[in-house]
Request: fold
Amino acid sequence: MDFAWTDQETAFRARLRALLADTLPDDWERFSQHGPASPALTRYAESFCGTLAEQGLLIPHWPVALGGQGLDPWHQTILAEEMWIAGEPRGGQYMNVNWIGPTLIRYGSPDQQARYLPPIAEGKALWCQGFSEPGSGSDLASLRTRAERDGDFYHVTGQKIWTSYAGLADTCFLVCRTSDDRKRGISILLVPMDTPGITVRQIPSLIGEGDIHEVFFDDVTVPVTARLGDEGQAWEIIGYSLTNERLGIPRYALARAALDRAVAVLKEQGGVDSEAVRIEAAHAAALTEAARMASYAIVDRRAKGEAIGAESSSARFATVMAERRVCEFIVEYLPEALADAHPYLKMHHQRGIVAGIAAGAAEIQLNIIATDVLKLPREPR
Reply:
């Protein structure tokens, strides 16, 4: 791997930083604590993403024919890093850029692409993903939300939980069961959230306003044309989507920026004189760099057109370890940050505490690493 950025990549990063400096409001660090799915930040994100779209910086890695610039995965990574370091002003729309759009490009029908891709490219769409259910979180294959086909329609009944952005989302990327086969019986429906029979209830949380919800489907009628891919193809599509999602959320970048900010504050306070503090800061910094290198190794493979498999879980877990260590460092040595003394650090903590859950629980990532990367035998039951 070549660790040097090209002149083009360096200029691209500088352009992003300049836009962020010119665009974000003066009180952005405090404002961003509203949470990515709050009404306030969602409204701001639509305006901000519109600005990115006008500047050609919302979907630059998409194909030119679909409104992008055809830039490589390294540019996508730079874009994601700078947005996350800034506190992700795209709000929930980062999903559109990272995996909703690319998944529709790969698996969507012409009609689905014509309907859903333009609003994403203009920064006007907000999606939620209907994955987890009560009793079926990390084990997605055990989901029970059912879609029974009746001619040209499905009738959907079931419940989803921990659904980010559902309260304000336009469309749900819904994973549901269309037959009893554990994996081959799962399909995906693209369901408008204003469809009759859908009820959304917000779940209070520590990570901001309006971030997670319960979603109930009570005999919701969905046309067969809303199915993404073939019936029973969901497992393949989800694997592709999650690989994009996990690599499109560079939490290591935000964690390192928060750690550097915390160390700078401690230096001003004379709080780094202790050897224990310096060791803990160094350990946290090493973990963020390890996570960055693990992620870059995957990006390098993508840039070369190579297939990516379970090794993406290794990069994901490295990022979880880094996030946890930085959060622990700040709680231990700058606890006043959680009382709003340092808004940027509080914003990071709100996002960091869910790192081991979002995009797949850390324990599930370890199982994938054990079985699919290390090829360890499963212990017989």
Summary: The CA atoms of residues 35 and 208 lie 4 Å apart. The longest strand covers residues 212-223.
